[in-house]
Automatic annotation (TrEMBL):
Protein's name in the database: Kelch-type beta propeller
SUPFAM superfamilies, per database record: Kelch motif
Pfam families to which the protein is assigned, alphabetical: Kelch_KLHDC2_KLHL20_DRC7
Gene3D superfamilies registered for this protein in UniProt: Kelch-type beta propeller
UniProt source species: Helianthus annuus (Common sunflower)
């Protein structure tokens, strides 16, 4: 005991400095998340103590070992980028508002774009509609006052949009249990039975006549939930009195893609952990916590047992509305991958992935114009569209910066294999 005492206290000092450092980095990351907020010079000074990884983009994916071995290896900032074909992108007309962590549902040639943060202190409470035929933002209407503003679960049957739970309010407030149905023909909203408990960014789909909700985080935004519920729905009406408990998902957590193709339900990517409100903060100020990002793919089929399928080419999260089904495959655009091992900064994803449902193989089928997370994707007449989310700082810096409203499209060529 005596021998270790001094070391112990030294260690404690290091731990404290480490924690302080983590808190400052968290602040810096939120500052970088929302460029409107100015960051203090002390935060910037602190950051300059960190090793600056090479900004040479041609040195991508290279791992360099420092000769002295004391500081360990230095990784390029862009080490997580994967090679992929460059695509030709057209810039279309910009969304009326920038949004982060919004939701989108496509019905034929219309993309309904919901909610989202404009800044960390401002959330949207309306729907913008983009028409893929006229290529214009063609309508706008309000959401119910009680509906969550970000991190919603959402799915459509082709006319009605079912909306479950999600975060209510700005900063890092918790989720609500409220659920709604929108009739996209009449633009009328109705209540549905609330989810048994609120969930943050749960995986949501319609499967075999039932609305399924699973995973996500619990009320504190951080703790992964593995619960899975369903309720029977038809043409915008709920047929059950209450939610039914279903088989828990093997891994919980928010920000996954959840897709049904050919009567099979897939849950892809996502993470455990997320930003949380600072204890006792009256505005629920966000503070960063540890997150682990996954490449996992789970599937439910006739056997009603969760099956594990081949993982994504790299861990990918913040993709809940960043997918489209094209030619018997699932296409996923952007996201976030594991944090940088040295700087601990959040790393955005700039690839488009394709999961072939016949061969169960993944491929990188293209690069986005930049790396972007929580982007909202649609597919119409051979074109892949994306709008909104948060983009990177530039080709050599994959950390998040600007919240965008830009709309882009590219002609896809993904022949049936
Ligand atoms: C970038 O790295 C490559 C390969 O390591 C090197 O050939 C090139 O000169 C570097 N460019 C700059 C601008 O440092
Ligand atoms: C989209 O725009 C096209 C061309 O202006 C129009 O014919 C079509 O009705 C619009 N779609 C919807 C659902 O309003
Ligand atoms: C889908 O596959 C067909 C047949 O191989 C091909 O002609 C078509 O271009 C593909 N569509 C897209 C969007 O890649």
């Amino acid at each position: 005991m005596g021998r270790g005492k001094h070391r112990k206290s030294t260690k404690l000092v290091f731990v404290c400095v480490g924690l302080l450092g983590a808190a400052l980095i968290a602040d810096l990351l939120w500052a970088s998340t929302f460029p409107y907020k100015s960051s203090s010079s002390s935060t910037l000074a602190f950051n300059s103590n960190y090793p600056h990884p090479s900004s040479n983009s041609s040195a991508k994916e290279e791992v360099t070992d420092k000769k002295d071995g004391v500081h360990g290896r230095i990784l390029s900032k862009t080490f997580a980028d994967l090679p992929g074909p460059q695509l030709k992108w057209d810039r279309m007309s910009e969304s009326p508002v920038p949004r982060l962590d919004g939701a989108a549902i496509q019905i034929k040639d219309q993309l309904f774009v919901f909610a989202g943060y404009g800044t960390i202190d401002l959330v949207h409470s309306h729907v913008d509609v983009y028409n893929f035929t006229s290529n214009t933002w063609s309508a706008r209407f309000d959401m119910p006052k009680e509906m969550a503003h970000s991190h919603l679960g959402m799915v459509t049957d082709g006319r009605y949009i079912y909306i479950v739970t999600g975060q209510y309010g700005p900063q890092c407030r918790g989720p609500t249990a409220h659920t709604f149905v929108l009739d996209t023909k009449t633009k009328k909203w109705q209540d549905m039975p609330p989810l048994p408990v609120p969930r943050y960014a749960p995986a949501t789909q319609l499967w075999r006549g039932r609305l399924h909700v699973m995973g996500g985080s619990k009320e504190n935004r951080y703790t992964p939930g593995v619960d899975h519920w369903s309720i029977a729905v038809k043409d915008g009406r709920v047929l059950d009195k209450e939610w039914r408990t279903e088989m828990p998902i093997p891994r919980g957590g928010p920000h996954r893609a959840c897709v049904v193709v050919d009567d099979r339900l897939y849950v892809i990517g996502g993470q455990e952990g997320d930003f949380m409100a600072k204890p006792n903060s009256p505005i629920f100020k966000c503070s960063r916590r540890n997150e682990v990002v996954y490449s996992d793919v789970y599937m439910l089929d006739d056997e009603m047992k969760w099956k594990v399928l081949p993982p994504m080419p790299k861990p990918d999260s913040h993709i809940e509305f960043a997918w489209a089904v094209v030619n018997n495959s699932i296409v996923i655009a952007g996201g976030t991958t594991e944090k940088h091992p040295e700087t601990k900064k959040m790393i955005l994803v700039g690839e488009i992935f394709q999961f072939h449902l016949d061969t169960m193989k993944w491929a990188v089928v293209g690069k986005l114009p930049y790396r972007v997370k929580t982007t909202l994707v649609g597919f119409w007449d051979g074109w892949l569209y994306f709008t909104s989310g948060q983009r990177d700082r530039g080709p050599d810096d994959p950390t998040p910066k600007k919240v965008i409203g830009e709309m882009w499209r590219t002609k896809l060529s993904l022949p049936l294999s």
